[in-house]
Amino acid sequence: MRIDWAGLSDCGRRRTSNEDAFLADGHLGLFVVADGMGGHAAGEVAARLAVDTVRRVLGESGAGPEPRLTIERAIREANRAIVERTHEHESLEGMGTTLVLALIDTASAWISHVGDSRAYRVREGSLQLLTRDHSWVNEQIRMGLLSQEEARRHPWRNVVTRALGSREQVEAEVGVEDLVPGDRILLCSDGLNSMVKEERILEAIRGAGSDLELACQRLVELANGSGGEDNVTVLLLGVSQAGPGPKTP
Ligand code: CA
What we know:
The chain is of the alpha+beta class.
């Protein structure tokens, strides 16, 4: 299995700073998007700390025999790092971050998330959401109290119910998905899916064919073209048959 990737993060049209962060480490097979919150410097610190801590933990131990446990530990440590940094610096009070990651393990991808950053898979012409947002609006949708359309416009649409850094403990969701050649895995911050409908996300990815960078550029253009109200980050993985490439697990 060979994994190629491209990633792009953009400030958007309304914000003055970019509090998103992403990481692509082909050696570890680790791909992460984090969406920081807490305002300017604080959000940036939280997102970067989360991404760096996850990479450090997974870099030290690798996925190990039990990737799920390793990922959970990495996310717990990232949470602790943010909480500790907040205690050290009053100006960072209230900072936190969402996180979504993919860890490639032979012919599968471990997907884990906290908050409303998302993972999607494109396979056989359709787009499948692999994560469930930990957000207030998603809870309302699940209880049948809001429709998808109402949620998109709801004033509380950005309220997350889980984040790294907001409590001493955090629970990540972890799942595993098989990979087949031709799959695309998209990790993104909500600056993409809050601005761009899923049909258009799919069109942009399919339309770019094997050019992952072009797909990322088009996704960011779509978000900005729809108003660009938030920072937007996309990290797109392309799965193909084994061959020379950045990563051959
Ligand atoms: Ca965001």
